[in-house]
Amino acid sequence: GESVGLHLPTLSVQEGDNSIINCAYSNSASDYFIWYKQESGKGPQFIIDIRSNMDKRQGQRVTVLLNKTVKHLSLQIAATQPGDSAVYFCAENNGGATNKLIFGTGTLLAVQP
Amino acid sequence: KAGVTQTPRYLIKTRGQQVTLSCSPISGHRSVSWYQQTPGQGLQFLFEYFSETQRNKGNFPGRFSGRQFSNSRSEMNVSTLELGDSALYLCASSSYRAGETQYFGPGTRLLVL
User: Fold this and answer.
1) Rounded to a whole number, what is the distance in Å from the CA of A12 to chain B's nearest CA?
2) Cis peptide bond upstream of B39, omega within 30
């Protein structure tokens, strides 16, 4: 069935280091991918997205990489800060005429000062 | 622009009762989606409404229903509450096209006793 899974449930990094959060998806028909950040007690916050016709997209301190060959998505956070501590979710929209998102299980990013 | 708002933020109900949750999308957004978030199942798609019509539905029992009004505000209803319905219910809005960025509200935390 359709699924989006994360390899690492918890990632601990030192402040200032770069973080890489990975995600695997199974539906090759998916054409839109999004990364969300969720802090405790809050709803998911949009970070960055990428469409299937791209393999890389950069934002402010974040980069998303898409490898369609192996159905893999990653989020890179440069110079990780304590404020980046949160749960990160990848999500896929598998095309069609709806906005249904399939979410991964989430990765907890813990930034050590 | 104001973000997605959800009311109430917290709710306590007992088994067998019903509950109605409300979501006001970002101004100009016409698509509203609902998700259930639990520690065990993660984020799961409930349904999506666009122009007052249900455009897609997730794999939830018929006790879960929703509707959308002409001003794009949406409500979801859960009848005959069960303990397992305790969750964070999240609403997300996006513009009219499918596959567009969805922005989430803070959620309604429902506790069923």
Assistant:
1) 20
2) no
Angle at CA of residue A71, ends A65 and A72, nearest 5°: 40
How would DSSP label each residue in A17-73? S-EEEEEEE--TT--EEEEEEE-TTS--EEEEEEETT-SEEE-SSEEEEEETTTTEE
The answer to whether the CB atoms of B105 and A43 lie below 8 A apart is yes
Kindly report, residue by residue over B29-66, the tens digit of the pLDDT: 999 999 999 988 899 999 999 999 998 999 999 999 99
pLDDT, tens digit, for every residue of A27-36? 888 889 999 9
- Residues of chain B whose beta carbon is less than 8 angstroms from a beta carbon of chain A are 4, 31, 33, 35, 42-45, 48, 50, 55-56, 58, 90, 92, 94, 98-107
In angstroms, the Cα distances linking A104 to A6, A35, A75, B10, B21 are 6, 10, 13, 25, 25
Sort strands B10-13 and B108-112 into parallel, antiparallel or unpaired: parallel
Show Cβ contacts of residue B20 under 8 Å, excluding neighbours closer than 6 positions: B75, B76, B77
Contact A103 B44 (CB under 8 A): yes
B57 Cα distance to chain centroid: 12
